[in-house]
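tool=predict chain=A
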Amino acid sequence: MTLEQALEESLSVIATGFLSKVKRALATTPSWDIRAIKSSLLENEDILFAARTNLSDSHDKVSGLWGVLIVTDLRVLYYYSTSEKDWTLDQIPVDTIESIEFTRSYNTSHLSIYGKSSIFHLNSDRHVLMEKARDLINQMIYDKSQNSESSESESSASDNMAQAAEALKSLKELLDSGIITQEEFDAKKKQLLNL
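tool=predict ok
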């Protein structure tokens, strides 16, 4: 999905009505913001979500400033600016995200994303958007843990096969030197190979 499509999708959750139209106008990302953001995206990066949100007071760099939260398949990005030329990009690579916290009050949702070296504290009055960002990031954390467990079990199976091969090699040497019989070798071979 393109950045523009992701931003338009996030705006589509804002209901109709006068107050909602005002909120939608305030949440629309200016074209110069979009150009600056697009210049920082990687070619192989797939955008999963994008929305304008506000940095909360607990952010360690600046507070009360509007920016754009973008979730891609590789990173969680937050762009904010005080002018057209003064852009700041904070990012947390997916593989360094350790946890997230989500709270919701009557009028605001708070989303905190904790990476190994960065933290984002964001808030928005559009609960659906923050919940979608939360769900996407939770899914990425879950997928990362599943991939890690899968590679660990593959590594363990590979280690077991290497150990069995080494043990068979040792048994063959014992058989060739006459220390064990063919029957003993065959029995031990079946045991090692789980036959």
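Residues 159-192 form one domain. The CA atoms of residues 167 and 192 lie 8 Å apart.
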